[in-house]
Amino acid sequence: MSEYRPIAERIKDYRPVELRPSRGFLSEELKRCQDCGIPFCHAMGCPLHNVVPEINVEALHGRWESALYKLLETSPFPEFTARVCPALCEGSCVQGLNGLAVPARLAEYEVSERGFENGWIRPLPPLRRTGFKVAVAGSGPAGLAAAFRLNRAGVAATVYERDRRPGGFLRYGIPDFKLDKKVIDRRVALMEAEGVRFRMNVEAGVDVSGRLIDDRYDALVIAAGARRKRDLPVPGRDLGGVLFAVDYLSAQNRLNSGEIPSLPPGFSAAGKKVLVIGGGDTGSDCVGTANRQGASEVSQFEIMPEPPAVRSPANPWPQWPRILRTSSSHEEGCRRRWNIDSLEFAPSEGAPSKVGAVKCREVSWAGPGSPPRPVPKPGSEFTVKADLVLLAMGFTGPEETPLMPDGLDAALRGGGPEMRIYVAGDAARGPSLVVRAINDGLECAARVLKDLAARAPARKSA
After folding, report:
1. How many domains does the chain have?
2. Alpha-helical runs (H) found in 395-433
3. Does residue 415 sit in the same domain as residue 384?
4. What's the domain range around 237?
């Protein structure tokens, strides 16, 4: 139900493609929300438990400031989730039983933007400080949420980030046409005004030792994400032009922001036949980026079956609907195929060190056993030309760093008796959604605060 800028216009730039909802449209949708009998959106849908009906009724009657405060009671960064959340709440919307769900995400967008425009979202530093200090490793959504909550409770929070700018996957993994990075900068500036410290180009456990963290802080929150990329180890994997999707997306974002003067060699899709392997959101983001770079042709292959157009009986409401989704990037030009297994990367005839084609075959998922497994279809092999292949098959877990359990710095592991280590977000649960990472960061911070509070009497008596 989102409205977008015209395709012919938006593929020429990296500005946001989604338009702000019109007042008339949003008003009618908010009215539909009030027809709900027993809402499931905030209980079964939203990980943050946003009270969607209560927020929407305030917005419907023009009480935007009140709507904002109800939203902020559970969501620290509504401007993020209003742009990149898949809107789990809408999947369990009662109106979705017989028609279209109420677009709660668009309502959240309007509420949060009015909050910034009217100065209702402003720095709120804590009235007093507890004397405790906590280090947060990682500035993605989980790390930001943890630092936000800790700081609001009076704990001095310092965020360590190995990249040049804060935001983690929000900044480097999501294209600008979905999330304008000014939105991140605006929030980080607010957090700094409230007292959160950001130390950029510093990797905790590497550039700052575990012993130093142990000496300076009362606790450490590891929110380093799950950045270990799922690879495709088939013949020809080492050919030039076979890239991980997140590296490709990150390079374009860094170019847009001025971090790098030009794309690395082989990272431009201009004039190339592009094949994206992987059918998820990251693959869709690659499609949109390749089209903006001037690809001559873009295809997206997925080994899993094509999702149904409507809910299957095995996927009833109010579960999240596992249905076919077409993104704004797909609408800009893309050939999609499902049940395709990629077998080999073949070299280009004119440049044997670079990829020129991909050998594939069709599979079915009707084989015996549980869980289902792909079964090759005899005689279904085919070859597709590709000058650039982007592996968008997700992530398998956290990268190996000195801060993760298997590689924890010895000084940190056996350091002072007061040190406590916590893990939040994708680093703990594995690859997931931005909204879940934010919720995990908040919950982790709550646990840290509880433990610090239990230690406070002992600290005072020492």
Report:
1. 3
2. 410-413, 426-429
3. no
4. 231-393
